[in-house]
Design brief:
It is a single chain. About 50% of the residues lie in helices and about 10% in strands. By secondary structure, the chain is an alpha+beta fold. A four-stranded mixed beta sheet has the order 2-1-3-4, sandwiched between helices. A four-stranded mixed beta sheet has the order 20-19-21-22, covered by helices on one side. The longest helix is centred in the middle third of the chain and has 19 residues, at about 385-405. It is globular, with a radius of gyration of 26 Å.
Length: about 675
Amino acid sequence: MNLLSKETSPYLLQHANNPVHWKGWNANSLAEAKEKNKLIIVSIGYSACHWCHVMEHESFEDQEAADVMNAHFISIKVDREERPDVDAVYMKAVQILTGRGGWPLNMVTLPDGRPVWGGTYFKKEQWINALEQLQELYKSNPEKLIDYAEKLHQGIQSIRIVPNENPNVIPSADERQEQIATLVEKWKHSFDWEFGGMASSPKFMMPNNYYFLMRYGHKKKDAQLLEFVNLTLTRIAFGGVFDTVDGGFSRYSVDNKWHVPHFEKMLYDNGQLVSLYSDAYKLTANPLYKEVIEKTLSFVERELMNSEGGFYCALDADSLNTEKHLEEGTFYVWKIPELKTIIGEDFDLFSQVFNINTFGLWEEGNYVLIQNQSLEGIAQLNNIEVSTLENKKKIWEQNLYIEREKRSKPRLDDKCLTSWNAIMLKGFVDAYKALEDGNYLKLALQNADFIIKNLWSSEGNLFHNYKNQKSTITGYLEDYCLVIAAFISLYEVTFDEKWLLNAKQLTDYSFEHFYDEKTGFFAFTSNLDEALITPHFETEDNVIPASNSVMAKNLFQLGIYFENSYYEKVSQRMLQNIMPGVDYPSAYSNWMDLAMNYSEENKELAICGDLTLEFCKKINSFYFPNVILAGTKKVSNLPFLKNRFNENETLFYLCQNKTCSTPSTDFQEILSKLN
């Protein structure tokens, strides 16, 4: 056993029996490299990463490769989910060196941590040869390696926020909306009008892209754009990236039709996609979207929730096949003989629904279930009622689920991450808004209590991770911004002001320990943490929106609730600094969503009176992305609600740009104004 046996991360523990003398990323490991003047191998991955497992088996479990690593290097294994800060810094280096990134990420650095060489997956012979050459060069001509490291370090540091050249020029609301319109028109050229998503493969779901495009299409009454979003969500829901048998989404599709997934299921995808489908259901009332929400939350509750109300990270892509070897996707795929046995006389109809044909074939006789037609169309072709086919589909899926549960399940990454828990919490809240299922709110509140109890210290800081009653890593900006957003969403459905006060407390802590006045952005790591080789500011939206864009949206909302002009100014400054440099809209969709808050359509609504929560539920069931909602059943000291409560009636205060109309008692009138 190497030193990883002392870690709690499932990914690190998977490597505890490797012959490599792995160490964790900590002060002792880094100090040892300097003391012994040894190059460092930094190898980064995560538990659900298929190619990480492949490289482990080929190289890190191999004695020959281990001997080279042990003789000349300090070898450090990093779980990217536990240390996104370390991952971000070395990912920049790999992208400079190779032009692309990904995992496993393998980097060789000087004893001080500055990178000199790296890449992603390497075959054993490549790996050994590269290490031997680097060690020989470091021994014979260290100045050459140090000089190269210095140049690469400068390159990494240059990948910083591009400053706004005209910070004092504040565009008007109309100018900002014109910029967004231009960006959307440019974006449309990348759309795949056959299968939805972008016209490329592999395909990632990128929930925030479609959240923004749906809001923009709705606001502009752009029927074509809304059609594209619905096409995309429908095609994703048809599978195979969506697991129609048990619910839940895989991380991405390797092809252009959302068919064959990279089979791992990540908490952050499922949380965000539940939020997206909940909003889409409010807008369209599409029963397919409701089915997706319900199945996914059922999966999360059953497979990814611990007894304390926390959510686990992921299910692996790999599971044991019939020969007891780990194989990608083996838990999820089907062969025709077993399908015929399970489905019986309905097999022909089943095959039409789930494409047990060339369209649904993956490889080696394995099928990944995927629809490409609506149930209505298939029912019509077969002269049966849609309701009959819907019932058959439910029965088929139940039978497939029972049979599949007999298989060896994918491995579980059973650590809890604060940021991902917050994403899932918000998913449950958004599903509660759309479907009004009280169990969803109950589970959201349960998870919020889990975060407060286990991941928020008495000193005011959040932790990043939790496992076995232990939290060992201090929180990153992503933890703060996403918990704040989740707490704001809880306020929107409960009107319990403790959630806003908690959000404000975490926001003020973020200003104290993360905010950089010079750039106008929040650093990814706290000023209490040991500095890495370069600071990291996360500003580009990815599969998870950038922590700075999430924080800017939080500040916009909290600025209104607390009438805090400083929050508002910082949010505006962040947006002003980002927007002039936006040329690739999909990497800035959350920023563009924030920019839409400054349009004339954005409104604030306060509901005050005995029936507040009833009207709150009704408002939340509508698709109103342009409305900030507040309310109270009693006298409130929240600045936005102050002096608005009247004991004898329920009043609606509709405001726009801090100007409120006369309070109304007519709910239908308010609805018509919001619409």
